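@here heads up, posting the sequence + SMILES for the S-adenosylmethionine run so it's all in one place. Ping me if the SMILES looks off, I pulled it from an old spreadsheet.
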Amino acid sequence: MAQTTMNLARRIKRHVWAPVWDWFAVCPPGLEWLCAQELRGLGLEEVEPQEGGVAFRGKLEAGYRANLWLRSASRVLMRLADFRVRGWDDLLRQAARPRWEVFIAPGAPLRVQVSLKQSNLKHQGRIAEEVFDAVVRRLEALGLEPPRPAQGGEDDNLVQRLLVRGYGRRASLSLDTTGPHLHRRGYRLEGAQAPLRENLAAALLLFAGYQGQEPLVDPMCGSGTLAIEAALLARRLPPGGQRRFVFQRWPSLRVKTWEHLRRKAAEAALPRAPHPIWARDRHGPVLEAARRNAQRAGVEADLEMLRADFFKAPAPPGPGLVVINPPYGRRLGSVRQARELMVRLGRHLRRAYAGWRVAAVLYRPEWVGLLGLRGTKSLTVPHGGLRVTLVTGRLPAA
Ligand SMILES: C[S@@+](CC[C@H](N)C(=O)[O-])C[C@H]1O[C@@H](n2cnc3c(N)ncnc32)[C@H](O)[C@@H]1O
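bot reply: prediction finished. Complex structure tokens:
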């Protein structure tokens, strides 16, 4: 047994800690360039935007760093193999190669997810079974407890995902390093009506070039996502600083590296946001939920919260950045009302917030013009079954 443990430790050092790995940060389509910008800003190398995410390379630390710091991404994968597929044998051979015992803890719940796009491989169910069995065989041969199939409804924090992707004549095997989606930072336990995903909120702020160097107001803050993400950004706090990741369950976790990254992040964080961040909403209970979310995120003291109707309250001292995610309904009547709201919103912004910059989430790309912004930039991304347009620009000065 002592021999097996020593062998495992040696294998981990040689085969997990030493090599340079291929990583892939998955992000909403349309945000690849933004996510690539974030990765470069983190000092990561060979950053290459691809469809649905960004490839990069680096040692284990690179994957840890990406999980801790990426604001716009959804998850980080470690690529174990990318190979040509002529038939089943290629898949079986590749699935038997990785030293699964260094990644998969004994008895861990494992889910093999298969996606095929015009692939030489067929039969998703069979592929998943074969790959799962390859992992089981490897661990059993070493006298280790094999993984068990993850059940539906199983705690997402525990489940290890292994992804098989077949595309044309090639296929890849990747391990998820993240666990629950990266937008689940851990602070938003209370939602409002139609809350924005945390990674999309952060993406809007990054898209607008917000770095915490100007006042910011979210006049329709709901559960507070945009204001909280702004405070995290302004204070240089890592979005993943309060959550756990599935790589922390790997037998090859490099504890010192992970602790070092977290310690460095804590040392570099600012004690307070340098400029005011206002979070406003006209509904009192929603604002209270936002306050509790901000408290959980550790940024309550950075936010100035006020119950106020956007159309009645004066703008706070500025100029700065107005971030806004107005209400939207999917029914036809409510879509018409949402458009009317956008017209009013644009009018009020031009009157009360002259000279401010704006970053907004719109549910129709053709509504961009209703805001009357100058120097407009926009991009469209999927969100909760819809496509939303992120727009930014400046309101004319008075
Ligand atoms: C789509 S939600 C915002 C969701 C928010 N971004 C989040 O992530 O939770 C729109 C919010 O606008 C608020 N609201 C609607 N009309 C308003 C008004 N005239 N003044 C202030 N808030 C308003 C609603 O109470 C609701 O919380």
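MO: The longest strand covers residues 75-84.
MO: One more: Residues 198-235+270-394 form a domain with the Rossmann fold fold (CATH 3.40.50.150).
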